[in-house]
Amino acid sequence: MIGKISGRIDFKALDHVLIDVRGVGYIVYCSDRTLATLPGPGEAAALYTDLVVREDLLQLFGFPTMVEKEWHRLLTSVQGVGAKASLAILGALGPDGVGRAIALGDWNAVKAAKGVGPKIAQRVVAELKDKAPAVMAMGGGAATPDPLPDDAPVVETPAPRKTAPKPAPKPAANVQGDALSALANLGYQPSEAASAVAQALTDDPELDMSGLIRAALRLLAPKD
C-alpha cells in the first residue's frame, strides 16, 4: 500500500499531477480543490494517498491532509460512491463541509458535487451519519505531509537566540473535535452531538470552544 507520495511535481493536469520521486513518476488523481493548492512544476509537494487496485488498473488518489484521506475512505464505503465521486464531493465541499452536510442531513449540499445524484447524496448522509463524528473530531490533529523530498539537501541555519517560550494558540480546527468530545462525555450520542455542533457553527462560525458547547447544548435541549 502506498500511503504517501513526496517529491517534485513534473506537471499538473486537469484531474491529476505527476510527481517525480527519485526518478520514478507517480500519477496521483486529486480533487479540484487539492490541485488548486499544489505548487507548480519543479516545486516540492507531498500528498497522502489511497491506492485503488483492480484487475487491470492501479490508481493513486491524493489528499493534502490525513483527515481528508479518511473522509475519502469513508465516502467510498458507501455503495455507489467510487473514488472519483468521492473526489467530486470533497472538491465541492471540502472536508469540513462534508462533515457539516452529513451531520445536518443536508443531502442537497452533497448533491451539488458534479456527477452525484440525489439518491447517492441521500445514501451518503444516511449511511455516514453515525460514522462521521469520529472523522470530524480528527480535524484539529489532521497531519499535513512534509513536502521536502527525501534526497533534498539539508541547509543548516544559525540557532536562534533563546527567548521565553510563548504558549501556542489552540488551532481553530481543534474546537470542533473538543466540543464533540465534551458532548460525548455528557452522554450525547455521536450523531446528535455532531448535528448540534455543525448547526451551531453554521449559525456562528466564530464560536470558541466554550461558546460552541453552550450553543450546541441549547440546540440539544428538549423543546417544550
UniProtKB/TrEMBL annotation:
Region feature (Domain I): 1-64
GO biological process: DNA recombination; DNA repair
Segments forming domain DNA helicase Holliday junction RuvA type: 1-62
Region (Domain III) residue spans: 173-224
Compartments, as annotated in UniProt: Cytoplasm
Keywords tagged on the record: ATP-binding, Cytoplasm, DNA damage, DNA recombination, DNA repair, DNA-binding, Helicase, Hydrolase, Nucleotide-binding
Regions crossing the membrane: none
Holliday junction DNA helicase RuvA C-terminal domain ranges (all copies): 175-221
SUPFAM superfamilies linked: DNA helicase RuvA subunit, C-terminal domain, Nucleic acid-binding proteins, RuvA domain 2-like
Region (Disordered): 140-174
CDD domains, A to Z: UBA_RuvA_C (cd14332)
Keyword DNA repair: yes
Signal peptide interval: none
Domains as described in the record: Has three domains with a flexible linker between the domains II and III and assumes an 'L' shape. Domain III is highly mobile and contacts RuvB.
UniProt similarity note: Belongs to the RuvA family.
Quaternary structure note: Homotetramer. Forms an RuvA(8)-RuvB(12)-Holliday junction (HJ) complex. HJ DNA is sandwiched between 2 RuvA tetramers; dsDNA enters through RuvA and exits via RuvB. An RuvB hexamer assembles on each DNA strand where it exits the tetramer. Each RuvB hexamer is contacted by two RuvA subunits (via domain III) on 2 adjacent RuvB subunits; this complex drives branch migration. In the full resolvosome a probable DNA-RuvA(4)-RuvB(12)-RuvC(2) complex forms which resolves the HJ.
The protein, known as: Holliday junction branch migration complex subunit RuvA
Species, as recorded: Pseudooceanicola antarcticus
Gene designation per UniProt: ruvA
